[in-house]
Amino acid sequence: MRGSSHLAIGLITGVAVAGLVPGVPFSPFGIALAGFSSLAPDLDHPDSRLSKRLGFAQNYVRWAFAIGAGCIAAYTYFMLAPGREQRMSYTAALAFALIGLGMQGGSARKLALLFTGASTAVLGLYFGFLWLSLLGAFVALAPFTAHRSWTHTLWATALWTYTGYLANQSLGWHGVAQFAGAGYASHLVADSLTKQGVRWFFPFADISLKVPLISTGSASGNLLEVGICIGYGLLILGLVVGRMHF
Q1: What's this model's pTM, rounded to 2 decimal places?
Q2: 184, 174, 222: which is closest to 2 by C-alpha?
Q3: Angle at the Cα of 72 (from 70 to 75), degrees rounded to 5?
Q4: In a 10 Å sphere around its CB, with 0-12 CB exposed, 13-18 middle and 19+ buried, how is residue 217 labelled?
């Protein structure tokens, strides 16, 4: 399913949580969090909507390798005497330069996400926010997993929800766990409507659960996605309005 459809379903799910779950206040932040969470499972795909947004630093990663290669080369030239050690150092500089040049698209984006996630995890450890460290670890590691594997499981949904729970306990933002967990789960449910399906219980069960309605990427599939989003939105709108007391 396309990222725009996942985002729409996640935002509608956020409205459902805000309007239908007892004790959870209506919150634009919570709805936005549900939308963000609905995109999180696809961090395992370098071309996903969220990967592109969080991987904004990919060009800087390439420059970092180029600068690193230049620094190693300069150190080698000025500080090392001719010989075996110098040759090895020049080889390292060349390797850095080649890696930087070879990074295109997905590979650079993966490293950018790794650095972004790792930095977030370190900040969480520094300030004593376990939820921030878990979030950073997820962002750092998800791009290096196979698509629709670890991030598209019941266990990942539980971890994401638990991260929201810790954020709620730490920051006092009531309803974070509900918005985060529901938004994340909405992605898996939506992908279960595609022909590929989702392995909810991977790696313990390698069976894809699916209702194969949508052919991802096809014109008919895209049209059906729009219809599902509209129908889901109207359903939630009706339920929320029905609970209001005028």
Answers
A1: 0.80
A2: 222
A3: 105
A4: exposed
